[in-house]
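[Meeting: bench + compute handoff]

Bench side (C.D.) handed over the final construct sequence. Compute side (W.E.) agreed to return the predicted structure before the next meeting so the bench team could plan truncations. Sequence as handed over:
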Amino acid sequence: MSCTVLITGANGFIGSHTSRSIEALGHRIVPIDVVPRSPDLSLLGIRTPSHIMNVTDAGAFRALCEKERPTHVFHAAHPPRNEDPSVINYCYHAMTNILEAAKEFGIKRIVYSSSASIYGQLKKPNGELVKEEDAVSIYPTYFYRAAKTVSEWMGDFYKEKHGVDFVALRCSSVYGPGLYRSIPLELKKGILGQPCRPFLTRPLDDLIYIDDVVDAICRALFADKRLSRAYNIGLDKAYISKDLQRAIQKALPDLKFEIGQHPNAAEVAPHRNRDPLDISLAKRELGWTPKIYLEEGIARLAAWLKEHKNTLRL
């Protein structure tokens, strides 16, 4: 059965890859974003034009839902990662508008692009990994983390009080073609003859390729059964800089590069140890498991960059 999926943040990295996949499955999409799609992400070949609008505009968003009658929502919209309270304000109003529309128009399911950053440390004091149903400790770290937590809380509230079917996917470090930061940006610089300094976000990082993330999103959106409130979506292993170096050397043997460091490494690295997430619940209930490990992921990214080298711009 064909569905109508409204996608917020549809012109961003995760939103664009998800839009392409849902189109390929034969479903109708209603993409919205506040900005046009970047030149790199436009290379993905998404057919459906996006509505340029802000999901925090309650009147405009409701009118769009009334016109398009989405059956499902994938919510990936997020403001720039500025460390100020406006991030929380945006996320609260965006999620509230989506949840109110779901309640009014009987939307079947909302899948939210959350983040593993909500956890803080990934291990309990006794050494066990945290799980999706464990309480999240509240302490001052980043507004980004707080905004994701507030958005999940709103979804949980509407699920319990109003019966809105809400599911959060807590993704680890996502990478792939078209991401304009981190490893993909640095490799693009190298392909185009610029200084290339790819880096891990943390000294021990659980990188997950975008195709695996999109697979999890589609499984969560279209699963014909009751789902849990949240799932960890990550790789079942973590990597160090040497692993990244070897993967790049194998995929791009002629590339001149050196392993760099996150521009805010002093702030980011202590935030939490990036041990692998516990993904057993996603495996059990969604039938999802990661398939693309670092070597293959870097190889896929490198192949895409080489294919589009003549059209890429910095």
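W.E. noted at the follow-up: Strands lie at 4-8, 28-33, 51-52, 72-75, 109-115, 166-171, 173-175, 207-209, 230-233. C.D. will use this when planning the next construct.
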